[in-house]
Amino acid sequence: MFSARMNVVEKVYEPVAEMVATEAEGFYRSGKMHCAEAVLASVRNAFVPGVSDDVVRLAAGFGGGSGSGCVCGAVAGGTMAFGLVLQGDKKATSALTRELHRWFKAEYGATCCKVLTANGKSRCLGLTANVAGKVAELLQQRK
Asked: What are the residue ranges spanned by the domains of the chain?
């Protein structure tokens, strides 16, 4: 299910979702963005490209589990992306957030950054790409 041509992203998504996952991976790999910023920026670019870069800066505090190590920053970035794309539709944002959390827990066992990075941050690049792709996939399915 993940594309063989992508070294980190493991699932084949729809073309937009795959593009979002690849872009998030690149943002994270560049070292200029952490997980939450990379997810939010790549989803923003695909779904609401006219929105200012200032919005992505709002995710600055969410990397590394919001400084406390609790919620994965990629998941937090995905949650912010839902709110941005869905323009304040709280019911839809909540439903997609629950779906993202269910998917993430099934894939990775936990949403806690401290648990996920207990052996280092080597998984973060893949988590970031995969979450961005899943967020885009969920948004596309909603249409």
From this structure: 15-142
